[in-house]
Design goal:
Butyryl-Coa Dehydrogenase, subunit A, domain 1; alpha+beta; binds flavin-adenine dinucleotide; Butyryl-CoA Dehydrogenase, subunit A, domain 3; 383 residues
Length: 383
Amino acid sequence: MDFNKSEEHLAIEASIEKFARNEMAPLARELDEKSEFPMELWRKMGQLGYCGLLLEEKYGGSNLGAVGSVLAMQAAGRGGADQGTCLSWASHMVIASLNIQTWGTEEQKEKYLPKMASGEWIGAMALTEPGSGSDASSLTTRATLKGDKYILNGTKMFITNGPICEVAVVIARTDPEKKGASGCTAFIVDRSMPGWYAGQKLDKMGMRASPTSELVFENCEVPVENVLGPVGMGMKGVAFSGVNWERTILAAPFLGGIEYNLEQCIKYAKEREQFGRPIASFQAIQHKLAEMAACIEAAKLLVYRQAWMIDHNLPCIKETSLSKFFLAKLVGFIADEAVQIHGGYGLMKEYPVERFFRDWKLASIGGGTSEVNKNIAAQLLLK
Ligand SMILES: Cc1cc2nc3c(=O)[nH]c(=O)nc-3n(C[C@H](O)[C@H](O)[C@H](O)COP(=O)(O)OP(=O)(O)OC[C@H]3O[C@@H](n4cnc5c(N)ncnc54)[C@H](O)[C@@H]3O)c2cc1C
């Protein structure tokens, strides 16, 4: 594995970090407090070409690949301190746009991807339901073929970008006779199709700039040409194929977030004085900083390696499962130590470590919980 960054990687990293420091970071606290997505900023990101990092050039993207996109999203997390916006951004690029690029027909790609690359249309992916989370394959949303349309009925839960999306990749059951992952199909649903709406925006502990909601389908009419991938392959094809990408690109803003936290702690430890000297002079604080730095290096290696494997078309389900739960541990440890170093001030909203302490928790839940990822890794170890 080559640790040298290409010219292209260095350029996109520098550009996104500068943007994040100048444009995202100043808004982060207010967006968190108001639980608001920065739509104006998003439009700017679209103009700068940031919304289609994984898409091919012919659809308006920059085709950065996994390593390039990890470096870009890490830079966003490092500079912007706004994990919520990064979550919406990464979800739009990976579980919505990339799934359409991977599984779509040329007609579907031409219709949807240029508008998604430019940020004009925001994407979502709707798999989880109120009764099916970790056991996603037990989903009950039904899609029934009637003439040249599928009629969708059911409710999706916890959908990132639900309230703001124009397009959603939706997984529904087309064959009720088949249980589990079989008999499910993916659809591209857009706002021109009647019969679907977002439920109320959910009020979350963290990631508050990223809007989350239910998506409700009531006799929603989806033309047959909007089936994504083969009928019956919604879970086994579309949903499962994107898992490695999801666990890689969505991890990247957390990498930047932990770097940002360490930066904040070093600054604070040098400024804050107790017992007549900066707290940075206490060995207990120095050890915390050293441990945080070691965890950051370990986290980076885990995510870079799986990104490199994806770019080299190597199977990496074991690597991404191991990394998913271990990264969550590292990120949680750093979030905790960052607040500890800030003492009482660490609990105050004016310090970004407080926000990260709430945001990081999604790392152990979203896109497959830590327990489920341990199950997958253990099955592979024991087979
Ligand atoms: C902010 C946010 C954004 C999200 N965005 C999206 C999105 O865009 N699209 C989408 O489709 N979904 C999304 N999700 C859903 C997310 O993927 C699920 O929350 C996650 O898969 C867990 O499902 P659950 O919440 O129903 O928990 P459950 O599956 O009910 O799990 C509850 C607990 O039981 C444990 N558990 C469950 N099964 C096992 C088992 N077999 N062995 C051991 N332990 C087990 C879990 O690890 C967990 O600790 C989002 C969730 C959140 C919170």
